[in-house]
Amino acid sequence: MSRELSIAIVGYGTAGQAAALLLSRDGHRVEAFERAPQPRPVGAGFLLQPTGLEVLWELGLLESAFAHGARILRLYGETDAGRPVMDMRYAELEPRLFGLGLQRGTLFSLLDRAWTSRRSLRAGCAIVSVDVREGRLTDADGHRHGPYDLVLVADGSGSSLRGQVAPARYDRPYPWGAQWCLVETGAWPWPAELRQRYRRARCMAGMLPVGTHPDDPVPRTSFFWSVPAAALEDAAWPGESAWRAGLDALWPEAGERLAATPVPQGLARARYRDAVHARWYAGRAALIGDAAHAMSPQLGQGVNMALLDARALRDALRAHADVERALAQWQRARLAHVRVYQRWSRWLTPLFQSDLDYAARLRDRVFHPLTRVPGLRAQSLRVLTGTRLGWFGTFALAPALLDALAAAAAPAPAYTDPVEAGGLP
Ligand SMILES: Cc1cc2nc3c(=O)[nH]c(=O)nc-3n(C[C@H](O)[C@H](O)[C@H](O)COP(=O)(O)OP(=O)(O)OC[C@H]3O[C@@H](n4cnc5c(N)ncnc54)[C@H](O)[C@@H]3O)c2cc1C
User: Candidates 9, 10, 46, 348: which one to mutate for ligand 1, based on the most atoms within 8 Å of Cβ?
Assistant: First the structure.
């Protein structure tokens, strides 16, 4: 470490948690502010890519993540008529690779429990303004905090503070969002796959096994249901029977898993934004995670990006005693990875969540055949596994991580799709 800094972090989601842990382990004095009185994640589960696993591995949390998460070997999407649209296996890229389905609460708890030394978390404290020149914060009760050497604004996709740090090139909501929840995995037939089903781009459901929580041994699966943002309003709720009929018509097996879930109360609502900043920092403050680069979750990269942002920032602060130089190096180090995923997400989202029927028909016809062309298949695999860097580069995973993946995970069971093998149980 070049020198000990006093660092404030606004928001205790993945980006804030990872930054708090990495930077306090490096000897900095970290103070985190979270508006929720009892910090906890919102939403269901997510897919951690090898890139995100690399950060957990560095943090010494890989084994605990494996103890709870579900190994995901295949990403598969099909139309309601059973036509494949996407069919990717991690092992085609590198035999040791896989993704890890995790409950949001599990990652939250692993990162939270690991932040033991020099811990300072102020829960129930919403920050309303950031003085980037002085490195000071003001909370909703009018109390001032700081000055700090560095303020990290990690207040998520709907950030109310991003404009105070740096002007957004644009910042707009997506017209579609989602309802999501955890359900018991039970006898779900695809325990090692992210599985999606589509009817044009108007209807989409996803099921991702996400394993257990440290305080709950029941294996769960994260359910995702795409809806126009306007349909997330209470007034637009179609009623339980109409909602269930819609799901059953698209995907009866998923409907069965949802039978015990009270709706709409048991469904969390998600809205997404697309926010691009030319610069993520100004003076003594920086945006990190979704606050810096909100994107649609179509490619499921945001948690991975948040972890990678935090690690790259730690590395830049190790390399430069001057905070502004460190922030400039940090943004340079992350930009190629972030930008390409923002672009792909922006282009792909309407193919999966929109009322553009012609685009969905084109998707159904060309996606699968195109991704079977050898060169294009490798490119698509890279994009989907989070290992694309810039347009043509590759995110170099540490060789030791690949060994750790092979060694730390239980041997993968020989995996056969139960449908291909001759029928569902
Ligand atoms: C439906 C859906 C599915 C997704 N699936 C995946 C996936 O499979 N894989 C993946 O990698 N990513 C996925 N993502 C994206 C991922 O959830 C986000 O990118 C990630 O959570 C961003 O982390 P963050 O820490 O930047 O923000 P957040 O997790 O949103 O954390 C922000 C925190 O800041 C706090 N806060 C906000 N304002 C203030 C304030 N003024 N003062 C103090 N605290 C404040 C909030 O309470 C919150 O705790 C998905 C997202 C959605 C919506």
Answer: 46
Query: What's residue 93's pLDDT?
Result: 92
H helix intervals, 201-322: 240-250, 252-257, 290-293, 302-319
Collapsing DSSP to helix, strand or coil, 259 comes out as coil
Please check the confidence at residue 415 and state whether its pLDDT lies above 90: no
| Contacts of residue 414, Cβ cutoff 8 Å, sequence gap at least 6 | none
Helix (H) or strand (E) holding 105: helix 104-114
6-173+272-408: which CATH architecture?
Answer: 3-Layer(bba) Sandwich (3.50)
Residue 425 banded pLDDT, cuts 50, 70, 90: very low
CA distance 41 to 14: 9
Q: Name which residue sits closest to atom 29 of ligand 1, judged by CA.
A: 13
Q: Is residue 2 over pLDDT 70? A: no
Residue 424 has pLDDT above 60, yes or no: no
**Closest to 112 (Cα-Cα) out of 213, 14, 30, 27:** 14
User: Residue 47 C-alpha to ligand 1 middle, in angstroms?
Assistant: 14
Q: Give the pLDDT mean for 245-253.
A: 97
State the distance from the centre of ligand 1 to the C-alpha of 302, rounded, in angstroms.
8
Instruction: Compute, in angstroms, the gap from residue 404 CA to the centroid of ligand 1.
Output: 27
**Best of 9, 17, 34, 383 for a ligand 1 pocket test (most atoms within 8 Å of beta carbon):** 34
Measure CA of the first residue to CA of the last residue in the chain; give whole Å.
56
User: What pLDDT sits at residue 374?
Assistant: 86
Give residue limits of the domains in the chain: 6-173+272-408
Write down the pTM of the prediction: 0.95
For residues 273, 22, 182, 81, the Cα torsion angle rounded to the nearest 10 degrees is 60
Check pocket membership of 263 for ligand 1, CB cut-off 6 A: no
